[in-house]
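Input.
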Amino acid sequence: MTTNKQEKIVVVGAGLMGTGIAHGFASAGFDTVLVDTNVESLARARDGIEKILNDGVRLGKMSAESAGAALARLATCSYLGEAATGANCLVETVSEQLAVKKAVVVQAEPLLAPDAIIATNTSALSVTEIAAALKCPERVIGMHFFNPVHKMKLIEMVRGLATSDETVVRTRALCDAMGKTSIVVNESPGLTTSRMSALLGNEAMYMLQEGTASAEDIDTALRLGFNHPMGPLELGDLTGWDTRLSVLKYLHQSLGEKFRPCPLIIKMVAAGRLGRKSGHGVYRYEDGKQVPDSGLKASAL
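Output.
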């Protein structure tokens, strides 16, 4: 199935993910409206998108004409009611709070085109529960993008209980138009990527706690032995161990014992060693550089 590039796409939420998603749609030829009640966030997002486009020109990945056309297709708006009117697809990327997401889609549904796709970028909340708030839950689907959106090729399409086959087919066509590879996941805690990443990172921390190998050697093993671009401990520092702990607790509660958080993660979070954002996690971060912390042991925390 092909898409009509004249379709209007609305992206709600001008944070990091919303910025990347709006860039992706505008670059793919769609008229795109980025919505946020915070006008300063909208200005930052537009500047961020312009920078990505300019970098693409500088690196020879696109022409200056294509970059200018993409930027011209992007509009910003602080009022969802205005932006959603007649739109063919809405992607919400607001905060991971069920009540907030429901409020967005409930407000937008009667304004969108009658057959519009309603997508959520959530990686943790229930697509089925979000859809249940609407009159046409069959049009709701998860579109889980990855950061940074302009570099990451994967989109997890998440089927809720009511999601129709037609919605899946049309959403896949949008993914194809953006140059992304899509997979279909039936709604499940952690989907595919979050679930596997959490398990791998947790096991790496158990190995570190038990003294199986140093953090650097564990990460090197995964990078060189499995061709991962980043080791699991480096990735945990990048994601934030508080975020990783939250995901593990949720998966432990919903999927069982194999996701029990490693005690070392719990201790690190309690100590404020959250990773890059705090300047210290499994590794130290000094002047933007990653520095090994040879003194990290379970007993040291």
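Residues 193-300 form a domain with the N-(1-d-carboxylethyl)-l-norvaline Dehydrogenase; domain 2 fold (CATH 1.10.1040.10).
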